[in-house]
Design a protein that fits this description.
The protein is of the alpha+beta class. It folds into two domains: 82 residues, no CATH class; 69 residues. The chain is 35% helix and 14% strand. It is built from five helices and five strands. A five-stranded mixed β-sheet has the order 2-3-4-1-5, with helices on one face. A hairpin with a 2-residue loop joins β2 and β3. α2 runs antiparallel to α3, α2 packs across α5 and α3 crosses α5. The longest helix has 18 residues.
Length: 184
């Protein structure tokens, strides 16, 4: 059996927070019984589970502590900037529950995902003793690097930045990947 990592909702803004539905909410169409029956992890926050979205991805659900599993449920969306991320996660869950096409998680763009992969590659090479040029060749291709003067190469500076940013990411900055970037 594979153990899953359950991030705290204050770190991962894609966690769907569930509580008991209010009495004014109709319960006959509530899909709470469609959620996973078995919780995979319980802690002082509540009961954590993963819901299969049907697209090869899963969504982290947290039924808050003290909330009974056999009661109609409602989602909690705090009215802060992370509320936008939580609304997006809730929409993905609702679409999966109702058999509709589930939109992708947009917290990381394809470009951000590619850069995160390159940062990890660069740090891996750096930690294993590779020099900057070897790392650049592994990431960008030897042919691209060969045509440039290395000392003034934009790829050289990009590789140095990938290593610096990758080291920051593995020192705790990876948590930023769990929510949308916020503009000031």
């Amino acid at each position: 059996m594979q153990a899953h990592v359950y991030w705290s909702p204050d770190i991962d803004t894609g966690v769907v927070l569930l509580t008991t539905a209010p009495s004014v909410s109709p319960s006959d169409n509530n899909f709470f019984s469609s959620l996973n029956d078995a919780d995979e992890h319980a802690d002082d926050q509540g009961d954590h589970s993963r819901h299969d979205l049907g697209d090869g991805h899963h969504l982290h659900i947290l039924r808050l502590a003290g909330i009974e599993a056999d009661r109609p449920l409602a989602a909690i969306i705090p009215l802060d900037l992370d509320g936008f991320d939580r609304v997006e996660a809730l929409i993905r869950l609702l679409k999966a529950l109702h058999g509709r096409a589930v939109p992708p998680d947009t917290r990381l763009t394809p470009q951000q995902l590619r850069r995160a992969r390159q940062m990890l590659q660069a740090v891996d090479g750096h930690m294993n003793g590779a020099n900057h040029r070897d790392i650049a060749e592994a990431i960008y291709g030897a042919k691209d690097i060969a045509g440039e003067t290395w000392k003034s190469s934009s790829r050289r500076f990009a590789t140095i930045d990938l290593i610096k940013d990758g080291l920051a990411m593995i020192s705790g900055g990876y948590r930023k990947l769990l929510h949308h970037r916020r503009r000031s």
